[in-house]
Write a structure and sequence with these properties.
five-stranded mixed beta sheet, 252 residues, 26% helix, 8 helices, alpha/beta, binds zinc ion, 20% strand, 2 domains, Ubiquitin-like (UB roll)
Length: 252
């Protein structure tokens, strides 16, 4: 029998059973285990962890926990000033790209509205979402902890809210995306890129009033959906302003 003292910091406590939140957890174990497996045995997805130390010295996920160790586990974006000696996961190329799992279609549409590349299909199962995330280096956004705990996943975020607008604000904050918002560059239906299109080339697809009152149109390169500055565009602009208004105090 061996024992370890585990200290989960900050928002990592969201994941663990209430009686263990914010306290030193004395965990007794028999089998050799990596710190990653031990963290996940408390239902904390590894994607939520930014920095881990044993006796104050940085360790990686593969560290085999020894008897009497004191392990501190810190969340992503905790504001901690950690020495950059042990990186837990490879850095992602910019701009960041995303994939959401099934049931999160409205989050995907909001992310696209703000200009972010965000894949979604209600035909993807969890295995496909995980493989696409790995192969295309996409960040998974999900409410499914088990999906984030898959070995092949390196980058992901567990959405705290089940309301799509609040989820969008969570993602903007987590990945510091407020300054990268570019509305109306991406199709909210399919994630395709929007391009300006000459009115005469699409005139036959417009309703009479739209044809009469509008001259500037955008079309999705992939699904050919047409966008113009009509009433739905005003609603979308309002929504973009709502998201922008939620920039956190520290980012102002
Ligand atoms: Zn489209």
């Amino acid at each position: 029998m061996a024992q370890v003292r585990l200290r989960f910091h900050g928002v990592l406590n969201d994941f663990i059973t209430p009686v263990l939140r914010g306290v030193d957890i004395v965990h007794v174990f028999e089998r050799k285990a990596s710190v990653k497996d031990m963290i996940e045995s408390f239902h904390v997805p590894h994607t939520e962890v930014e920095w881990i130390s044993a006796q104050g010295i940085a360790i990686d996920f593969e560290h085999i926990v020894a008897d009497r160790e004191v392990i501190d586990i810190y969340p992503v974006a905790s504001g901690g000033n950690f020495p950059d000696t042990v990186q837990l996961r490879p850095a992602l190329a910019l701009p960041l790209t995303f994939i959401v799992d099934s049931n999160l279609g409205r989050l995907a549409r909001y992310m696209r509205l703000l200009g972010f590349d965000c894949l979604y299909s209600n035909r993807f199962d969890d295995g496909e979402v995980a493989e696409i995330a790995r192969d295309q280096q996409r960040i998974i956004l999900t409410r499914d902890r088990a999906l984030l705990q898959r070995k092949m996943i390196t980058h992901g975020y567990y959405l705290r809210s089940d309301a799509p607008k609040l989820q969008t604000i969570e993602v903007l904050r987590r990945y510091d995306l407020f300054s990268s918002i570019k509305p109306f560059v991406r199709c909210t239906h399919c994630n395709g890129i929007l391009c300006e299109v000459a009115k005469q080339s699409i005139e036959h697809r417009l309703e009479p009033l739209t044809r009469e009152y509008f001259d500037t149109f955008l079309m999705c390169e992939t699904c050919h959906q047409i966008y113009w500055e009509g009433s739905h565009c005003i609603r979308m602009e309002h929504l973009v302003e709502v998201f922008r208004a939620n920039i956190s105090e520290s980012e102002k």
